[in-house]
Amino acid sequence: MTDHTLTIAAIPGDGIGNEVLPAATRVLDRATAMAGIRIDWTWLDWGCDHFVRTGSMMPADGIARLSQHEAVFLGAVGRLDVPDHESLWGLLIPIRRAFDQYVNLRPVRQFEGVEPRVRLPEGARVDMVIVRENTEGEYSEIGGRYGRGTPREFALQENIFTRVGIERIARYAFDRAAERRGHVTSATKSNGIIHTMPFWDEVVAEISTEYPAVSLRKVLIDALAAEMVQRPHEFDVVVASNLFGDILSDLAAATVGSLGVAASANLNPERLFPSMFEPVHGSAPDISGRGIANPVAAIWSGAMMLDHLGHADIAAGILDAVTASLREPATRTADLGGTADTEQVTAAILAGLDPQ
Ligand code: GGG
């Protein structure tokens, strides 16, 4: 008997987004149905095809339509014949900003049975969360191009770091660390970036005084990238600006196997607007259409969505089924050394949801 309905907008987008998102919604449908919950999906065909057809990635009332939902579930954006800045700034980034999704939460976990890509000490496991600032920083519209096609041509782009923006992302990171192992690492580059990064360091350090039980270590981004390859198991919570957080999360995901297991949540923690959940990976034109994409990142992102919507128990059940499927090469995809295709992984996860 269904006693509760969730209204969720689903945007598969481009490339493998059209393969992993339907797989993930099947898993979410089954897991919620078992708990007496129904998901009312609004499927939206927005993305690069829409851009080629109409000149925009989503309709003019797109944000208003999304705002009628409890959450947004996104696949991937990007197509080889569409400039990447058009696809990102026409869909993904406007949604993050319109809904003030200032936290991009990206968990990185080493799953049992999946061989890490870096050598770890005996018994060590990678389990970190990257807290990426998601609405300002280096992803800024402020700037322009001058003298196009002339010898004096230049491009100028302003980074935006606000006190409010740094304070709120730092507090979110410290809150997560307080619930976990109690360590925050802050990514910086305050030796070379003379204005914004010393400001970032200063504000993060100020917020740290509110959390005496949590340690803070600031590390220059170049050294941090090296540490993440050499000792990924030592990180607990990493807080980073928009660009640094994006780069580090791909790097961290690679250490534990592949971007195929990198999930993310774009959160408005105050819940004034819908939050958006998406795999970290893009549209992967090199493998799209072959049915071999890894659906785990999308499925885990969907589990994060259910957790955010108040169904932590269902989310945990999905993650258990994902964990079990990853143990065997027969039920994981080739990016993780397995032999399964998207359908076989999805079937294994669906079977793992059923009471044994
Ligand atoms: N899963 C959505 C997607 O396609 N992401 C690829 C991407 O390039 N994202 C950039 C970003 O997260 O800033």
Describe this structure in words.
The chain has 356 residues and is α/β, with parallel strands linked by helices. It folds into two domains: 1-101 and 260-356, Isopropylmalate Dehydrogenase; 116-256, Isopropylmalate Dehydrogenase (3-Layer(aba) Sandwich), CATH 3.40.718. The protein contains eleven helices and twelve strands. The strands form two sheets. The chain has a ten-stranded mixed beta sheet with strand order 2-1-3-12-11-4-5-10-8-9, sandwiched between helices. The protein has a two-stranded antiparallel sheet with strand order 6-7. Strand 6 and strand 7 form a beta hairpin. The relative contact order is 0.17. The mean pLDDT is 97. It binds glycylglycylglycine. One of its GO terms (molecular function) is NAD binding. It catalyses: (R)-malate + NAD(+) = pyruvate + CO2 + NADH. InterPro entries: ICDH/IPMDH, IsoCit/isopropylmalate_DH_CS, IsoPropMal-DH-like_dom, TTC_DH.
